TrEMBL record:
Protein name as annotated: t-SNARE coiled-coil homology domain-containing protein
Gene3D superfamilies assigned: 1.20.5.110
Upper lineage: Eukaryota, Metazoa, Spiralia, Lophotrochozoa, Platyhelminthes
CDD domains tied to this protein: SNARE_SNAP29C (cd15856)
Organism per entry: Echinostoma caproni
InterPro entries reported for this sequence: T_SNARE_dom (IPR000727)
T-SNARE coiled-coil homology domain location: 1-53
């Protein structure tokens, strides 16, 4: 029973550590999202301009 308790305590610690890591990564993703959206918009516009200059018709 002690072995099982020790294993469960270790598993709990690992789960809590994983939860904290995921929380931190989610915060980072939340901070990155607006910049990623802005870059995506810029690239879309630039691709449209390049296609226009090259005479490529939009799909």
């Amino acid at each position: 029973l002690n072995l099982m308790s020790d294993g469960m305590s270790r598993l709990k610690g690992l789960a809590q550590g994983l939860n904290e890591e995921l929380r931190l990564q989610n915060e980072q993703l939340d901070r990155m999202a607006p910049r990623v959206d802005a870059v995506t918009d810029t690239m879309t516009r630039q691709n449209q301009q390049m296609n226009k200059l090259l005479g490529v018709k939009p799909k």
